[in-house]
Peptidase S8 and S53 subtilisin kexin sedolisin
Amino acid sequence: MPKFPKSASRPLALAVTLSVLLAACSQPQGATPTSALPADDLGLWAAPANVPADVPGELIVKVRARTPLNAQTLGLGALLLRAERLTPGGDVYRLTVPSGREAQALHTLSARGTVAYAERNHTYTPQGAYIVNDTFYSTLWGLQGSTTQPASPYGTGAAAAWARGYTGSASVYVGVVDTGVQIDHPDLAAQVWTNPADPADGVDNDGNGYVDDTRGWNFTDGSSALYTGNADKHGTHVAGIIGARANNAQGVAGVNWAVNLIPTKFLGTSGYGDTANAVSAIAYLTDLKVNRGVNVVAINSSWSGAPSQALYDAISAANDAGILFVASAGNNGVNADAQPAYPAAYDLPNVVSVTAIDKAGALPSWANTGAGSVDLGAPGVSIRSTVNGSTYATADGTSMATAFVTGAAALYASTHPGVSPSALKAALLASVTPTASLQGRTVTGGRLDVARLMTLP
């Protein structure tokens, strides 16, 4: 069973409703915007209004081995309207029941010996907010350091690592579980994975259950369409921080000059995503590594919500496959030890929880912290990166900080082939630079230091 923070109750395996932690903008919902996020700029990426805590009429259930899934074995009878397997050949399903009768269905499932667990299909929201456009490298403070030109003492020092020849590798793959990504963006087109085993021909050539997953997969509508425009701004921004192309005389640079990004879209046009699609996306990336030989070293998770057994299991399976899982601590401005946000709060050896700092090393008022649960800080204010429309924009949020740490993990993996998730996490945490604003408010008391990370054996 999951190991949740001691201050949080472990969700019952069956029939429990949990409120979602909503924080799509960089301050708690309903709060007065801070100076880091001007109110009149929120329209560029605003939290959707009235996001439900759970998807109405949907449950997630895991059946025990060799159990046929039907209305009789589940005991639901006419309550079961539809069942959808979340992963090809798996034993976790999304069930559709009449809206308003979810609690009744969960109660029924709790009495069935054929059911391992059942839960509501929770929603999750991205953890960033967009502000202005910019394209100049000199403004990318999060990549700079105290010894770089230009200098930025509270940046990650990635540019100093580049100067020593550490620029990444195309043999390293990173999963971006988020909105879609503009895969033909000038700064991303050469960095997005192409699946050699499944060309776009209308046939599931690699037999993984996804027809033409040539560049990744859209789990919101079950298609290969990874980009629809403005709704995919968040994932495009995150992808650019991890690995926007460098030295191409335009735009921005990512932490990695060379990397393969695998987009898996689960946050939809509504502005949020759900457990079922998140689980499917993570399982897809895990399958690529385990069964397809793709060297997926990390998954970026710049979103948060309620705890889920199915989500926990998917991340645990990713750990078993050798994949690090980097997660946003959340933008609620709370102590995450007492008010955890998931998946960042899962006590798993491959989970790294990240909060944000600004250019002066200060902790924004909206950034979640936790001396026992949030691992480190990284740049998360005024972060410029790629966005939809082949353009660039600035964003605030723990989403952006998370992407810096994911990028650093990929950079380290480029020189440490086969590194385990636990060893990769240990290296990230051991190489932080102590930072006053993070002392006593994070596990390490420090911020991401890419330059120092790349000196570790």
About this structure: The CA atoms of residues 345 and 405 lie 16 Å apart.
